[in-house]
Every structure is written in structure tokens, then in C-alpha cells.
Predict the 3D structure of the following.
Amino acid sequence: MSARPGPVLLAVAVVVAAFLLLPLVAVVPISFTPKRFLSMPNGVWSLRHYRALLDTPDWGQAILLSLRVGLLSSAAATLLGLLFALGVWMFRPRFAAALVGFVLLPMVAPPVVSAITLYFLLTSFSGVAGAIGYDTWGGVVLAHTVMTAPFAVVLLLVALAEVDPRIDLAARGLGASVWTRAVRVILPNIRFGIAAAALLCFVLSWEEIGVTLFITSVNAITLPRLMWMGLRDNIDPAGAALSVVLIGVTIAALALRTLLFRPRA
């Protein structure tokens, strides 16, 4: 019996894929408009908004800040999530379910609630530790770590669920310390889960806008905030040009991954 999809199922898949991709395709011609506002090019195509990305230093600074915040917050969130997941998996505390539920609160709470809470937290830090206060890149890193750590915890707990606990019991029976069991026995078995958690946290930090709007003003302008400001204040088509660049980078990364990890005979 053939496992290939039938023509009806294939047509439905094509329609769904087109529905999801059309908004991404529509932004391409908009990025080539010669006008100063979002519009379709009427017979005249221009690269002025792509040049604006290179000529305006704000875009480069926002990209570098988003990269810095994304790398640091993903590293911190992955480390915190790893320590928590290892503690729950190795020691099996009595209130493990309650602890996991508490850690996952930022994931299930409405974004506006998390944003307001982090706003008051960072403003209180401003008078004590200005480096991680309101409208600082350190404060953005702290806020993004809080928001992305639950996702790291979920992925790492799923990865640990696939690990046979008998290998940890065997290492424990042979006299291995907690550190040795964690580093030399457990971590090698969840390395792909750790990488996936770090990547997910970076992506979530890179595109985070809701909380960032509450905790920044004029000094810590990340890339999503700058794009939001351009669309809200003057509807700058440079945001569409940057979107096309990011889409191209994503497609190139996926193509490179496909070439590097394609099945070999």
C-alpha cells in the first residue's frame, strides 16, 4: 500500500502552505517601494529602503543589541533551566509538580501581567543596581531570561524524560558524586535537548516585543522595538526591507542545514 498522499490531501496542503506564506511573500514587493510609506511599487522599484538599513546607524545598533541580549539571555535561561530540570530529575523532591508549575508561571501568565511586574521590578533595581535597571540592556537581558527560562525547562524536562534512570542509578552505585553523575552521565545524553533549549530561548528573545515595550524607553532599543517604532510613528518601509533580509537569512540557514545533514546512502 502506497504511503504517498492523495491528490485531495496534497491540494489541501498546498492551500494551507500558501495561506501561511502569502503574508511573507507580500512584504517582498513592499520593501522595494520608492515611497516613504508602506505601499506597493507602482511600476517603479527602488532599493532606497535597503540602503537606509546600511546608512542609518540605528538599525545596526539595534541588531547588535538584540544579538547581545539574545545570546546572554538564552545562555542564562538555558543554564537556569538545566539546573532546575537536573535537580527535579535527579533528586525527585516531594513537591516537584508544584515547583515545576511555579517555574512555568511566566509562560502561562498574560504577557501584560509579566510586563508590568518586570517594569516595577526593574524600576526598583534602577536605584540600587543601575546596570540591570529600567531602560538598560542588562535589564532587558534579565527580563528576557525570566520570560524564556520556562520554555527551556519544558524542553529539558522532555529531554530528561527520555533518559533511562538506571544509568544514573548505576553511576550512583559505583560511588560517583552528584557533579560527576550530572556532567559525565546525564548531560551527554541530553546535549541535543540543551542545544534546542538554547536555540528556542534565543529566538524568543530575538522577537520579544511585548515586555520590551514596558521596560525600555530610549536607551535600550532592540530590533523588534525599533521596527515597532518605525511602523507606529512613521510607517517606515525599512522595516519591510529588514524583514525580507531576515527571511532570506532564514531560508539560507535552512538550505545550508539541509545540505549538511541530508541523508547519505
In short: The chain has a mean pLDDT of 87. The domain at 64-234 is CATH 1.10.3720.10 (MetI-like fold).
